[in-house]
Design brief:
It is built from 3 helices and 9 strands; from the N terminus they run αβββαβββαβββ. The chain has about 220 residues and is α+β, with helices and mostly antiparallel strands.
């Protein structure tokens, strides 16, 4: 619910800030660099965990106001509080049954690929281009479980106890899930250099429990 409320507020702030900057920016542009862009991306995802993300994005201008994009993103850890809570409860149970201490911690690595379209609020001749957009995608989630004294025990735990949250398939090394991404932000251009600052809201489907998270991204690259 907090993520949904954030989704309603953050894009407005991002677009408003970018629009103010647009009003103050120079509109001088080199027509050679009006076709698209490529950027390397870094940022932070905000779900139950706040962790780093890295990736790459490429975009191409379809017309004066529409831009197609494709992106690939690595998410360091997307495990939910409920999934970690299950491992904590399981650790307590095993500690009682075996009379030896157990302390398990889980990590959900995410690799996401997506694509879609952005609507640009200014023309290609502008130095600052606020946008909103959306698109579908696919995410591979892999769960790794560590125990303080026993090291990685992912396969053993998943095979015996499963994954009640449904975010991963215990029988497979990685689970593919469909996603939808909504975004708002602004692109800043200076010659061939291109900087993209934006907010993303991601929803992951086909999970037993709701999985959604926000992300703040900064992309730096070049135009072509």
């Amino acid at each position: 619910m907090n993520a949904i409320r954030s989704f309603g507020l953050v894009p407005c702030v991002v677009v408003l800030t970018a629009t103010v900057a647009f009003g103050q920016a120079s509109s001088a542009e080199d027509p050679r660099f009006q076709h698209g862009y490529m950027t390397a991306v870094a940022g932070t995802s905000f779900g139950d965990q706040a962790k780093a993300l890295f990736g790459a994005e490429v975009g191409e201008n379809l017309n004066r106001h529409v831009q197609a994009y494709a992106d690939f993103t690595y998410f360091d850890n997307l495990i939910t509080d409920s999934a970690q809570g299950y491992l904590t409860d399981l650790s307590s149970t095993l500690t009682r049954l075996t009379a030896t201490p157990w302390n398990m911690t889980g990590y959900d690595r995410g690799l996401a690929f997506g694509g879609g379209a952005k609507y640009l609020f200014s023309t290609p001749g502008s130095s600052v281009r606020p946008y909103v957009g959306a698109g579908p995608g696919l995410m591979n989630i892999r769960r790794t479980i560590y125990e303080t004294n026993r090291g990685e025990i992912s396969n053993e735990v998943l095979a015996v106890f499963g994954a009640p949250d449904g975010n991963v398939n215990p029988e497979k090394e990685g689970s593919f899930k469909p996603t939808v991404q909504f975004m708002a932000g602004a692109g800043f251009a200076a010659g061939r250099t291109y900087v993209d600052i934006g907010y993303r809201f991601n929803r992951v489907y086909k999970t037993a429990e709701s999985l959604s998270f926000s992300a703040f991204k900064v992309g730096v690259g070049m135009r072509f």
